[in-house]
Write a structure and sequence with these properties.
Blueprint: H1 12-20, E1 28-32, E2 39-43, E3 52-57, H2 80-94, H3 101-106, H4 119-123, H5 129-148, H6 157-170, E4 172-173, E5 186-187, E6 196-197, E7 203-208, E8 211-216, E9 225-228, H7 235-242, E10 253-257, H8 275-278, H9 302-311, E11 318-322, H10 328-337, H11 341-348, H12 361-375, H13 390-430, E12 468-469, H14 470-475, H15 477-486, H16 494-506, H17 514-519, H18 530-547, H19 563-576, E13 577-582, E14 585-590
Parallel strand pairs: 6-9
Antiparallel strand pairs: 1-2, 2-9, 3-8, 4-5, 7-8, 10-11, 12-14, 13-14
Helix pairs in contact: 2-6, 10-12, 12-13, 16-19
The structure holds S-adenosylmethionine.
The site of S-adenosylmethionine has 19 residues, from strand 2, helix 6 and strand 6.
InterPro entries: Set10/Efm1_SET, SET_dom, SET_dom_sf, SETD3_SETD6_MTase
Protein name: 5609_t:CDS:1
Domain SET: 26-231
């Protein structure tokens, strides 16, 4: 967006004022980009890396540390930005009597940030984060303005908005001048603020001997625009603070918030555009009651998860996704949040950060599934407005489309990684190595931690190639026919069918999961309270009786169709299962490695 109305007609007196007062800038000149009409600083000749471009003495700075007596009553009540606005407005009011007059003359008359949008223009932002950000910022600015509007002979709202916009779009953090400053104070630095922004530009700001020096850390060609780097700012931040956006901005992000509550293990995320519509959605992971356990442990285990998160330094639940970067802390946090009771109990006894890098195949796949849900956020947009409307077109193409792109990229990374985990798990299952249940890194130190980027995209293994699921079960005609005789809707009774299939397949000497069944033959659940154990046993006995699939069926002998087999199968489901999605339907799968 070309945004600021640049007041750059004649800079002769400004340039003279800068030089007369000690600013130095050789081989650097004010100019305007003929293509974009952007005013800025340009090189007069080629400039090698490490060259000092400009130096500006502190006597040219405007900051609240200059002694302005009118500030004292407000020092404890106004924000540093409001205080600096007062200083700028004071100098502006002085007109030619101000030392800073030549500087103030060249400042833009307005900066087209959304703070200046009219009501009908604000409607174009409906449903976006920006709408929320602008409203909040405006509310606090109005409050501050009301506290100071009688100063300097009267400050109008447009005056105040102008001063604030000049500061958000041009000021530097005061900590640059005084590294011990821990406030959010800012300082206006003439000349230094003539540089436009280019992401990732290598440039150094140095404050020495009361002078700001700006040094290029890259070679600059002749007659080229010299850019500053305003920091890693997304298009939303740039539009709100500076009134412009960058095409394909590498610093665009989408914020994800993982919330962890008592009612559901992992509840929701979100932030991109339509935060209101998503903030209360459940992640759908709290389905432990149906026996499948992809991390939805009972509420009793929530404190344990909190404990693990806190000893691993993973309590910050807000994460930023970039198009080329997924924070490892988010993945580590999700690994803990999707732990089954068994995983949790084992990991509770083994403090240490390193194991958050990879817990085990089941856990990793459950974590990726949780992550996929978190990143499956609809970004609002295309609200039916004319795209020709400049503001809407910019919000749509530079903000909403970018967020969609980041989320799509993230989902594609998640698929690649899921695929890689499945491949590794399959090779582990088919390797000659002995499997040690419950197949966690903690008791199987040689388990490989998947590496994000090394999977050839052609080798796509569906999760069904790995897991034991109802689909495998119902593809076995003998088993399916026998089960259909006693269960009307097999997909509604998925866990029961899965239990029966585990018992059935355990007897199969040619089963593809033979190694798994050998490893977990005597698998006993971790200790539970007597009460829970008794209840579980009663339910299993009832199920066992009601199904009556013993010797009379074609699939089990009486020696196999026992309550102990049922208990064993229930334990396997509790410990090794995860929920995955197939054609949009949630399925339970046992991960056999
Ligand atoms: C610190 S000033 C930079 C110098 C300013 N162009 C001038 O002439 O004084 C920041 C303003 O410059 C403009 N700007 C900076 N970088 C830009 C960019 N990459 N694209 C478009 N406008 C930019 C925006 O209007 C922004 O509010």
């Amino acid at each position: 967006m070309t945004t600021a109305t640049d007041a750059r007609e004649d800079r002769t007196s400004y340039e003279k004022w800068l030089r007369d007062n000690g600013a130095k800038f050789n081989n650097v000149a004010f100019g305007q980009d003929p293509k974009t009409a952007m005013s800025g600083l340009f090189s007069a000749c080629s400039i090698p890396s490490s060259t000092l471009l400009v130096s500006i003495p502190s006597s040219l700075f405007i900051s609240t540390s200059c002694s302005y007596s009118f500030l004292s009553p407000f020092l404890n009540t106004l924000s540093p930005r409001a205080l600096l606005s007062l200083c700028l407005l004071y100098e502006k009011k002085l007109g030619p009597d101000s030392f800073f007059f030549p500087y103030i003359e060249i400042l833009p008359k307005n900066v087209l940030t959304p703070l200046w949008f009219k009501e009908e223009e604000m409607e174009l932002l409906e449903g976006t984060n920006l709408e929320v950000g602008v409203k909040k910022r405006k509310e606090s600015l109005i409050k501050e303005w009301k506290a100071i509007r009688d100063l300097h002979g009267g400050i109008t709202w447009p005056d105040y908005l102008w001063a604030v916009s000049i500061i958000t779009s041009r000021a530097f953090p005061y900590s640059l001048v005084d590294p011990s400053d821990k406030t959010s104070a800012e300082v206006l630095i003439p000349l230094a603020d003539a540089l436009n922004h280019e992401p990732r530009k290598k440039i150094l700001w140095k404050y020495v001997n009361d002078t700001l020096e700006i040094i290029t850390e890259e070679d600059i060609g002749a007659c080229a625009q010299i850019f500053n780097n305003y920091g890693p700012k997304s298009n939303e931040e740039l539009l709100l603070g500076y009134g412009f956006t960058i095409r394909n901005n590498p610093d665009d992000w989408v914020a994800i918030k993982v919330s962890f509550s008592n009612s559901s293990t992992l509840s929701q995320t979100q932030i991109p555009s339509s935060s209101q519509t998503h903030s209360d959605d459940s992640l759908g992971l709290d389905n432990s009651s149906d026996g499948s356990s992809d991390g939805s442990s009972s509420p009793a285990h929530i404190p344990s998860k909190n404990y693990l998160l806190s000893i691993s330094g993973l309590t910050n639940t807000r994460h930023f996704l970039f198009s080329d970067y997924i924070p490892s802390a988010l993945l580590a946090q999700l690994r803990i949040l999707v732990m089954t009771d068994t995983e949790l109990e084992l990991y509770m006894n083994a403090a240490g950060k390193h194991w958050c890098e990879f817990v085990g195949y089941r856990n990793e796949l459950a974590m990726l599934e949780a992550f996929r849900e978190l990143a499956s956020i609809e970004v609002s947009g295309d609200g039916g407005y004319e795209l020709e409307h400049e503001i809407y077109a910019i919000v749509n193409s530079q903000i909403l489309s970018r967020q969609k792109y980041i989320l799509e990229n993230t989902l594609s990374h998640v698929s690649t990684r899921t695929n890689m985990v499945i491949s590794l798990a399959l090779s582990e299952l088919h390797s000659s190595r002995k499997l040690y249940p419950p197949f966690l890194k903690i008791n199987n130190a040689t388990l490989k931690t998947p590496v994000f980027s090394s999977l050839p995209s052609s080798s796509v293994n569906p999760i069904t190639a790995l897991v034991i699921s109802i689909d495998n079960a119902m593809n076995d005609k003998l088993f399916a026919d026998a089960v259909r005789k006693v269960i009307d809707n097999v997909y509604e009774e998925e866990d029961v069918v899965l239990m029966l299939y585990l018992i059935y397949e355990r007897q199969n000497t040619t089963s593809p999961w033979r190694k798994f069944f050998q490893a977990v033959d005597g698998y006993i659940m971790m200790a539970e309270s007597d009460k829970e154990e008794k209840e579980k046993r009663m339910q299993i006995e009832q199920l066992h009786r009601s199904l009556q699939l013993g010797a009379t069926s074609s699939i089990f002998s009486d020696e196999v169709y026992t309550i102990d087999s049922f208990i064993w199968a229930a334990n396997i489901i509790d410990t090794f299962s995860l929920t995955f999605y197939q054609d949009g339907a949630a399925r339970t799968g046992i991960v056999p490695t």
